[in-house]
Amino acid sequence: MGKLDGKIALVTGAARGIGQAIALRLAADGADLALADVKAEWLGDTAAKVRALGRRAEVFAVDVSDGAAVEAGVAAVVAAFGGLDILVNNAGITRDGLLVRMDEASWDAVLGINLKGVFLMTKAAAKTMMRARSGAIVNVASIVGITGNPGQANYTASKGGVIALTKTCAKELGARGIRVNAVAPGFIHTAMTDALKPEIREAMLKTIPLARAGEPEDVAAVVAFLAGPDAAYVSGQTIPVCGGMI
Predict the structure, then answer these.
(1) Catalytically annotated residue among 81, 107, 119, 155
(2) How big is the CA angle at 235 (ends 232 and 237), to the nearest 5 degrees?
(3) β partners of residue 97
């Protein structure tokens, strides 16, 4: 028996990296998965891996920055599965640059997906969860939303906003049995970090007491904890997954 047997989980940005690892961990713990990303065809690999674990997987094309698309997407998930127990807001992008050189389009794109997307998805999912008087929402923030980071004014603002939004949603939705938490990953081994110059990677590793980059599965394990029954009395929290960086 898995800790999430019988649960329906919706994971955004589930095509690869941390999102895929989260989906697979939730499936391994017994959940059936609704997988969302901008393009449904990106989700084929994740869906196949979830099904190989013996769990149901359905894919949904959702632009999380578009209110109408989010409402339609969440409604489609509820119609397909008959309910929704877990929402993981993982979708996110970067458009890095120094503040004085950053254009409005880069600011708006990152805030639109990383922060507005969490607002829209949470709002849509909460309607179903409130009727059920039960649910768990886990938002993927970042440690730079706590510490700040040069060259990422838009990204850090979006992730700091996610942390604040998490606290407020926990206070608003708790009376309906809905828990809302966040994870704040640090330097995680993904395609994005693989593309960094070797000297930048080495400099980052020197800031980590555990002396290694994290893996997507490290983040997924904490998400699974927050989504599951072992965290039944945990809400409004942000848990860094950073090897001791902060």
Answers:
(1) 155
(2) 130
(3) 152
Catalytic site includes residue 155: yes
**Which tokens go with 241?**
């997954």
117-155 pLDDT, tens digit each: 999 999 999 999 999 999 999 999 999 999 999 999 999
- Exposure b/e, 99-125, CB count within 10 A at least 16 = b: eeebeeebbebbbbbbbbbbbbbbebb
Q: CB–CB of 184/146 below 8 Å?
A: yes
The answer to whether the beta carbons of residues 231 and 225 sit under 8 Å apart is yes
Neighbours of 49 (CB within 10 A): 16
Residue pLDDT, tens place only, 87-121: 999 999 999 999 999 999 999 999 999 999 999 99
Q: How confident is the model at residue 202 (pLDDT cuts 50, 70, 90)?
A: confident
Contact 14, 24 (CB under 8 A): no
Looking up tokens 């065809």 gives 41
**Domains delineated in the chain:** 8-189+217-239 (3.40.50.720)
